[in-house]
Amino acid sequence: MIVANTQHGARRVLVIPARRRSTRLPDKMLLRETGKTVLEHTYLAACRAEAPDLVVIATDDEEIAVEARRFGAAVVMTSPDCPSGTDRVAEVVAGLPRAAIIVNLQGDEPEIDPAAIDRLFDLLEKNPAASMATLATPIRTREKLHDPSCVKVTFDNKGRAMYFSRSAIPHAREWNETLLAAEPALFHQHIGIYGYRRRLLLTMPQWPVGRLEQIEKLEQLRVLENGESILVAVTSRATRGIDTPEDYADFVARHRAA
After folding, report:
1. Which among 66, 99, 50, 114 is positioned nearest to 201, based on CA atoms?
2. pTM
3. 101: exposed, middle or buried (C-beta count within 10 Å: 0-12, 13-18, 19+)?
4. Cα–Cα dist 42/21, whole Å
5. How far is CA 73 from the centre of its chain?
6. Which superfamily does 7-251 belong to?
7. Residue 70 has what pLDDT?
8. How distant is the alpha carbon of residue 55 from its chain centre?
9. Contacts of residue 165, Cβ cutoff 8 Å, sequence gap at least 6
10. What is the pLDDT along the chain (258 residues), one digit of tens a residue?
């Protein structure tokens, strides 16, 4: 792995892991019906954030690397054996000795709010006891509440995550539709963007898969199972990643209507 010397002093680093293969939408990073690839849209949105000292794309695919360099991104080639995006981000950070706070933004998030990125950096800067930070947004429909692809999160009065689940949490013993309209919201959707402290990020790949993680298929549960804290900030603006052909078609339509 080679990172330019000018980047070695970066303290706040945003890494965009981008892999080539996707089962539900092959080559989604390179789709370009809008005139720009999904990856370029995500990178440009990330660059509008004010907090990062460095934005870098991490990939094991040469075609993605060529595309990233075409639009001017810094690129780090990582091992093809990385089992997850988190491992890919950790590999990048291992080569950046001064990186202290790291945000992991998936390459299929072209509509990410730059302010959300800044908020994650700010959360960890202001809360030194927290090892990790993420975002959530209120859930206001039963359809989303009971959709297993919509990950839910509950957190305590200090904003520390208590649990993440594909099930509806908290589970109402007696259901009433007014629960969905409560203020502050009772149900929250987890938004899959993460901020880490260096120590945690480099330690996580060494932990075995957790029992709860194995059941729910949610990597963030490994952090809770190992006694680390995750801060959750609530945002009213939910990001919409691209996982399916329908997601991409909707994104293209929104882009053209803007």
Report:
1. 99
2. 0.91
3. buried
4. 17
5. 19
6. Spore Coat Polysaccharide Biosynthesis Protein SpsA; Chain A (3.90.550.10)
7. 97
8. 14
9. 151, 152, 153, 216, 218
10. 334 444 667 899 999 999 887 777 889 999 999 999 999 999 999 999 999 999 999 999 999 999 999 999 999 999 888 888 898 999 999 999 999 999 999 999 999 999 999 999 999 999 998 999 999 999 999 999 999 989 999 999 999 999 999 999 999 999 999 999 999 999 999 998 999 999 999 999 899 999 999 999 999 999 999 999 999 999 988 777 898 999 999 999 999 998
Look up residue 90 and give its two tokens: 């950790």
CA distance 81 to 211: 23
Write the single-letter amino acid at 143.
Answer: E
- As to burial, measured by CB atoms within 10 angstroms (0-12 exposed, 13-18 middle, 19+ buried), residue 80 is exposed
The long-range contacts involving 161-165, CB below 8 angstroms and separated by at least 24 positions, are 161/134, 161/220, 161/224, 161/229, 161/230, 161/231, 161/232, 163/221, 163/224, 164/190, 164/216, 164/218, 164/220, 164/221, 164/224, 165/216, 165/218
Two structure tokens written together for 153:
């999160």
